[in-house]
Write a structure and sequence with these properties.
Chain lengths: 325, 362
């Protein structure tokens, strides 16, 4: 075990994957010589050469589109989109091709592609550098969407994404990149895509979250615990496929559910979970489901960022309200 | 500091047969008469199949169909390819796809609404990409893979003149140039992108010259001259296989048909224009050439035509014999391993099927 932050864990994961399998390639803007703007791909080009760690021209659609061709040809490209707010020019390639080539060819061709991209806010970045648009991709049949919240999850989920036979979008909350270090195994290990993590057990209320909001939920749970409210915190880890069974399991014994995400309130992951609970488990609820989310407004610049983002205080406040329903 | 010229470009037009079918013997490829006959057969084959597909659409047996009428010389590009090359087609490439080894019944299956048809026979043919120019990037990726694994093969990617306005065209050309990839960009400039003429698509004199901006060569060929198409594509593929990088080929041709069976071209283009292009018909021209070489006779063409018609009829029977696919196909190919939610939805489809059967039995 080694103490690592999320960047180091991702870097170690990429190292391991490239070492284990020659068909794994890393490509994107500034990923080679520079080691990535956040240093996630640091040292990879030196170790594996410029044929496998490729600095591309500045063109997101081409990075993803060419990666689709590479995947069809038998490679396992790990493409980087420098910030998820720039992924939209590659949206067509993801939606119309990466997600559909298996289905279109009835399994003759497939697209084992990983697109890594930093996401979410909280670091006072420029416009478009703090987006949480994961729901756009979750809505697309044929794409998997993963978002880790800890260094060890990041490494294990990335390993699974790279060996996955289908395209995976791997969002990395940039606020968590260097937030904390934890012990991470140097050995290869995989965390299955589609399995949530029980962050904290509790009996009074279930809080489902993912990505940057998981640490805030933990803080809120700690504060609530002092008031006698035991919060069960689930980290989804993978948004599509969704571990809905884990949510149901938890709700069955807490009978109360809050969903927390940084992404805008409407039409998001929270809406999906709330709808499924309403369809399948409504009689087990003692109170309405609550969504604690960002706002239906463009992500503000840094002066108003804090007002936009949910935080531990707001989460604890909303959950107390939910308990008093 | 005086001004100086920093770039000089050069784009050439290339043809082997003139419009009357007369050959430039210096440029004539060394084909045997059997090879020439084969090329002609492919062209009349795609014309006959195309004609049949339009009729099948009119009678409700096929969905929207995109005719290749007038662009039959495209088959020469497929014949210039080697087995380990890859073909990345667009939606007006039935000639290319057939000449690369796909079967009539596969194209009929696609046209008839089945994804299974896209598993084309013939080596390394991607399914048709509908979103314009998006497939150019896939070709670039496949060519990139060839380069990384040091294969001596190449990719031919096909598209129309309208595609050259899309961002993906430019990104693909740029990547191919930067990484010197073994890819041939085969632009079939048929003068129309639905109702928009070539001159409204780009202000540049030729499409071929766009290659110069990306650091490789572009060439214009007479696209109604199958020998010129063959020579140009062969040379570009050879260059690619030798590691000398990409080429853009602008094949000058004409879309004699409507854009699709859902379109009426008389609304936006003149009859005079279409008539003028009729005189340049690729099959008529090639027939004149073969006749002058004493390879062609009417009796031979009639015989070949009869065989083709029989084969098309057979393929239609085969296509009709394909049983209806189970509705569960809809969800079974989204991922290699279906998610829990897809499995739930699969059960819903099966249950709906059972309900329908029960209702039918009543």
């Amino acid at each position: 075990m080694t103490l690592m932050n999320m960047i180091q864990a991702l870097n170690a994961g990429l190292f391991g994957a490239m070492q284990a399998d020659d068909s794994v390639l890393v490509l994107g803007e500034d990923v080679g010589l520079n080691g990535g703007v956040f240093r996630v791909t640091e040292g990879l080009q030196k170790k594996f050469g410029p044929d496998r760690v490729i600095d591309t021209p500045l063109a997101e659609s081409a990075i993803v589109g060419a990666s689709i061709g590479l995947a069809i040809k038998g490679f396992r490209p790990v493409a980087e989109i420098q910030f998820s707010g720039f992924a939209y020019s590659a949206f067509e390639q993801l939606v119309s091709h990466a997600a559909r080539i298996r289905n279109r060819s009835r399994g003759k061709f497939s697209c084992p592609l990983v697109v890594r991209s930093p996401c979410s806010g909280g670091v006072r970045a420029l416009e478009h550098h703090s987006e949480s648009m994961e729901a756009l991709f979750c809505h697309v049949p044929g794409l998997k969407v993963v978002m880790p919240s800890t260094p060890s999850d990041a490494k294990g989920l990335l390993a699974s994404a790279i060996i996955d036979p289908d395209p995976v979008l791997f969002f990395e909350p940039l606020k968590l990149y260097r937030l904390k270090k934890e012990e991470v195994s140097e050995d290869h290990y995989e965390i299955p895509i589609g399995k949530a993590r029980l962050v904290r057990p509790g009996k009074h209320v279930t809080v489902v979250s993912y990505g940057s909001m998981v640490p805030e939920c933990e803080k809120a749970a700690l504060a609530l615990s002092e008031k006698g409210i035991e919060t069960e915190v689930l980290d989804l880890r993978s948004l599509s496929p969704l571990d809905f069974a884990a949510v149901q399991e938890s709700v069955k014994h807490t009978n109360r559910l809050a969903i927390v995400h940084e992404a805008p309130y409407s039409f998001g992951v929270g809406a999906e979970i709330a709808a499924r609970i309403a369809e399948r488990n409504v009689l087990e609820l003692d109170a309405p489901v609550v969504r604690i989310a960002g706002l239906d407004a463009p992500m503000p610049l840094s002066k108003l960022e804090e007002a936009y983002l949910p935080n531990a205080n707001r989460i604890a406040f909303e959950i107390e309200k939910l308990m008093n329903f | 500091m005086p001004e100086k010229k920093v770039f000089v470009g050069d784009v050439r037009f290339f043809s082997v047969l003139d419009e009357s079918g007369a050959v430039d013997s210096k440029l004539e490829p060394a084909f045997s008469s059997d090879e020439l006959k084969k090329l002609f057969e492919w062209m009349i084959q795609i014309r006959a199949f195309d004609d049949k597909c339009v009729k099948l659409q009119r009678s409700g047996k096929l969905g929207t169909y995109l005719s290749v009428l007038g662009q039959e010389a495209q088959v020469a590009a497929a014949l210039a390819m080697e087995k380990n090359d890859w073909l990345v087609p667009y939606f007006r490439d039935n000639g290319l796809i057939l000449a690369r080894g796909a079967k009539f019944e596969e194209l009929l299956a696609v046209g008839g609404g089945s994804e299974w048809g896209s598993q084309f026979s013939g080596p390394n043919i991607l399914p048709v990409a509908i979103p314009v120019a998006t497939q150019l990037l896939h070709a670039v990726g496949i060519a990139w893979g060839m380069k990384i694994s040091k294969e001596k093969n190449a990719v031919l990617v096909s598209f129309g003149d309208g595609a050259t306005s899309e961002g993906d065209f430019h990104e693909a050309m740029n990547f191919a140039g930067v990484f010197q990839l073994p890819v041939v960009f085969f632009c079939q400039n048929n003068q129309w992108a639905i109702s928009v003429p070539r001159k409204n698509q780009t202000a540049s004199e030729t499409i071929a010259q766009k290659a110069l901006g990306y650091g490789f060569s572009g060439v214009q060929v007479d696209g109604n001259d199958p020998l010129a198409v063959f020579v140009a594509v062969s040379e570009a593929l050879k260059k690619a296989r030798q590691g000398k990088g990409p080429t853009l080929i602008e094949m000058i041709t004409y879309r004699m048909s409507d854009h699709s069976t859902a379109d009426d071209a008389s609304k936006y283009r003149s009859l005079q224009e279409t008539r003028a292009w009729e005189k340049k018909d690729p099959i008529d021209r090639f027939r004149k050439y073969l006749k002058a070489k004493k390879i062609w006779t009417q009796a031979w063409e009639d015989r070949v035509g009869q065989t083709i018609r029989t084969r098309i009829e057979e393929s239609m029977r085969k296509a009709e014999l394909i049983p209806n696919h189970p509705s569960t196909d809809i969800v079974d190919f989204v991922f290699l391993e279906s998610t829990m939610e897809l499995l739930r939805q699969r059960e819903f489809l099966e249950e709906a099927g059972r309900r329908e059967k029960r209702d039918d039995a009543k």
